[in-house]
Design brief:
- It is a single chain.
- By secondary structure, the protein is α/β, with parallel strands linked by helices.
- It is built from 15 helices and 16 strands.
- The strands form six sheets. Strands 2-8-7-6-5 form a five-stranded mixed sheet, sandwiched between helices. It has a three-stranded antiparallel sheet with strand order 9-14-11. Strands 1-10 form a two-stranded parallel sheet.
- Helix 2 packs antiparallel against helix 11, helix 4 runs parallel beside helix 5 and helix 12 packs parallel to helix 15.
- It is globular, with a radius of gyration of 21 Å.
- Bound molecules: pyridoxal-5'-phosphate.
- The site of pyridoxal-5'-phosphate (PLP) has 14 residues, from helix 4 and helix 5.
């Protein structure tokens, strides 16, 4: 059969409330034109993030009841540790309450002022955590990864030449580790090939620089390798994931993505000294090392979720939903990042809103138009999230102006997607009627979460 169906039935539902266009405009005004500040009840289609927003399976709900809430050495921890080790093959496992806690403790324990941390592309929290300890995060994505029209299969790859140059320029002593993010959320959810991970590792090994994987979407990346990289068709997603982890010295993970959970994260590493330092920092900030800020029931749920994310049929369905939306938008000439990402469709706001310069945030204009016209909450991954304003008040834009429509896992059905297509089409037709924005209030780091915008007259 050609039709790919959802590999699940729906057992529980959650109501969606539609509010009128006038009410949405009012709500956005009250939220200072920043969709992060909207109440979720006013967002009928919420594509803000795929992080922690998925639906749990019956197996996960059942596992929740097995949660052992003992402070130390619980049976839930044992299951969690065994599952993480079976996938990563990495010696030391530490739970954290979410991905950024793992990043923050990694930065606190291993990074010092003046260090440089290369990555294919840092996610916003990773970047902010490195900046917060005085290090410089560098994005070394290939040129192809920066071209929304380039249909290369692995646009998340690290540029090996740029990495060599970076090591030559700064010297290995200033690089405590290099990161690689799979899939590359910042650059359109694009995958990294096994060959690239292996080549990065080989290069770093020559300089004694450890490789740390940001593994949030490791299962989606494994699926792309299975589908697109020569020699992997006959392998299971688990075997592919195991090979990916075999090339790294450590990894940070947000279980809110491919842990199919609503909360959680972890840090894994081989090195005993790294582990000792991480453990001590964890106890101070997150909790005892066998729960690390999570309830026993969360450890149970994520142990099940990690394995469910590696079920091939689940990944086939998930990627079919991305392709469905992407193809319909491309057919209407709507500019998108190609090919489809693992967890989202990314609209190319620079071309969608080509009458708005980066200094007036075309991505924010598109995000707000989608909300006003159809109640779709999306997120800007452009000059607000990845650009910054310097001490002279000059804005430094991001190389890409994207708007991400992130797909919560196992949540929306095909009619929801058909509705989204209708809304996006409407905004596309009226695009010249939307104007730019200015920031009137912003915090020093991670400004997109809480800054206030004002509309500029169009
Ligand atoms: C690539 C990547 N790294 C790190 C994080 C941070 O994870 P968390 O939100 O669990 O702190 C995210 C979250 O979206 C992400 O996409």
């Amino acid at each position: 059969m050609k039709t790919i169906i959802e590999p699940f039935r729906i057992k529980m539902t959650e109501p969606i409330h539609m509010i009128s266009r006038a009410e949405r405009i009012q709500k956005l005004q009250e939220a200072h034109q920043n969709v992060f500040l909207l109440d979720a009840e006013y967002c009928p289609i919420d594509l803000l993030t795929d992080s922690g927003t998925g639906a749990m399976s019956t197996q996960q709900w059942a596992a929740l009841m097995l949660g052992d809430e003992s402070y130390a050495g619980s049976t839930s921890w044992k299951k969690f540790e065994a599952t993480v080790k079976s996938i990563t093959g990495i010696k030391h496992v530490f739970p954290t309450h979410q991905g950024r806690a793992a990043e923050s403790l990694l930065a606190l324990t291993r990074v010092k002022e003046g260090d440089v941390i290369p990555n294919n592309s840092h996610f916003d929290t990773t970047r902010a955590n490195m900046l917060s300890v005085g290090a410089t995060p560098l994005d070394l994505l290939t040129q192809r990864g920066l071209d929304p029209d380039d249909e290369s299969p692995f646009k998340g790859n690290m540029d090996i030449e740029k990495l060599k140059q970076c090591i030559n320029t700064y010297g290995a002593s200033r690089i405590p580790f290099c990161m690689i993010t799979v899939t590359n959320n910042t650059g359109g959810g694009q995958p990294v090939s096994m060959h690239n991970i292996k080549t990065v590792k080989q290069l770093l090994e020559g300089y004694g620089i450890p490789l740390v994987m940001d593994a949030c979407r490791f299962a989606e990346n494994a699926y792309f390798i299975h589908e697109r990289e020569k020699g992997y068709r006959g392998k299971t997603l688990l075997a592919i994931a195991q090979e990916m982890f075999s090339y790294v010295d450590a990894a940070t993970m947000s279980l809110k993505k491919d842990g199919l959970s609503n909360i959680g994260g972890f840090f894994v590493c081989h090195d005993d000294l790294w582990a000792e330092d991480f453990k001590n920092a964890l106890i101070l900030r997150e909790g005892f090392p066998t729960y690390g800020g999570l309830a026993g029931r969360d450890l149970e749920v994520t142990a099940v979720g990690l394995m469910e994310a590696l079920v091939y049929e689940y990944q086939v369905y998930r990627h079919a939903t991305v392709e469905y939306l992407l193809k319909k938008l491309v057919a209407r000439g709507i500019p998108v990042m190609k090919p489809g990402g693992g967890h989202a469709v990314f609209l190319d706001a620079a071309r969608f809103m080509d009458h708005i310069p980066p200094s007036q945030y075309p991505g924010i204009s598109l995000v707000n138009a989608l909300y006003e016209e159809g109640g779709i909450r999306s997120v800007e991954l452009g000059s607000v999230m990845f650009g910054h304003r310097d001490e002279h008040g000059v804005e430094h834009p991001s190389p890409l102006e994207l708007v991400r429509l992130a797909f919560p896992r196992r949540v929306y059905t095909q009619s929801h997607f058909d509705y989204m297509i209708e809304v996006i089409k409407e905004v596309w037709q009226k695009r010249k009627s939307y104007g730019g924005y200015t920031i009137v209030k912003q915090p020093p780091l991670l400004r997109h979460f809480s800054c206030h915008f004002e509309k500029l007259s169009s």
